[in-house]
Design brief:
InterPro entries: DUF433, Homeodomain-like_sf, WH-like_DNA-bd_sf. The chain has 70 residues and is mainly α. The chain has one domain: Orthogonal Bundle (Arc Repressor Mutant, subunit A), CATH 1.10.10. The longest helix is centred in the last third of the chain and has 15 residues. It is globular. The mean pLDDT is 87.
């Protein structure tokens, strides 16, 4: 994973490509298999998809939760 302010607004991406980790996770959660994704996106490799899955828990870690009252 790479994080670069000049690529996808600093979101974690697949090895400098313009595929945010969240996009890969959305594809998988929509029912696409790893093989489906690889067929549609030639510049991705199986290890890229697996790395996104390994990185996913970091996207859900929350340091603080705030109660917003309107």
């Amino acid at each position: 994973m790479t994080i670069d302010q000049n690529i996808c607004h600093g979101k974690p991406c697949i090895r400098g490509l313009r595929y945010p980790v969240e996009f890969i996770l959305e594809l998988l959660s929509s029912g696409m298999s790893i093989d489906d994704i690889l067929a549609d996106y030639d510049d991705l490799e199986r290890d890229d998809i697996l790395a996104a899955l390994l990185f996913a828990p970091r996207l859900t870690q929350v340091k603080s939760i705030y109660n917003v009252v309107k």
